[in-house]
Amino acid sequence: MGEKRPGIVSIIVPVYNAEQFIRQTIDCVQAQTYTDWELLLVDDCSCDKSREYIQEKSSTDKRVKLVSLEKNGGAAEARNRGVKQACGQYICYLDADDIWLPDKLTVELQYLRNIQRTEDTSAGFVFMGYEFADASGKGLGKVVHVPRRITYQQALKNTTIFTSTVMIDRDKIPDEDIYMPHIASEDTATWWQILKRHGVGYGIDQNLVKYRRSVDTLSSNKLTAVKRIWNLYRKQEMLSFVKSVYYMFFWAFRAVLRRI
Hints:
The chain is α/β, with parallel strands linked by helices. It contains ten helices and ten strands. Strands 1, 2, 3, 4, 5, 6, 7, 8, 9 and 10 form a ten-stranded mixed beta sheet that branches. α9 packs antiparallel against α10 (241-259). The chain starts with a strand and ends with a helix.
């Protein structure tokens, strides 16, 4: 584990056969107006040119670092390895095909510090809105808005917390609560875990993140998404059948609204 240093943002990117997007992903981090960061690109045994592109970038910017997994472990394992090697006070996640606008880190960090100073000294979990984008990274005009505050109970109904928008203060939330379980929808399970143990998360209703999606992904994964969330309710959160149905109704309603 790296020695935690105040003010540093550790950005963790799981990488698996991401050569189509990885250069643009790295570029958007290097373009951030907040420059005190390290970028941990965790290669999950890619068999394309992802590693070569990362090594090329890291040779000219020491903040860009390649972390290699010995065997393919999935996104949760890659993110957890990143947390273990991170030296930053703050953890951010960025999926390899998503894009940050230049002020993302600056806005989020200022917001978190302001909340800690004026409203909630224990605040350690923030997230923001985002926009759906096409395969080229062009925004589609569909922006997902987020609430200013969200609790565990509210989050069960509303999975608007998107992984590439999250920032976590490790001075407030210990690493054992950040590590993701090796289950489907591991990121959602982690946000629920953090909220259940640490109270409120704070949202920034500002769009500085672009989430790529494709038509094929939308049509093929609807049923899979429903099954994953249902399993989280029943197996991860150990909710009753009735409560699971109740929360699933609200989850499905909001999921549809986000995509139309």
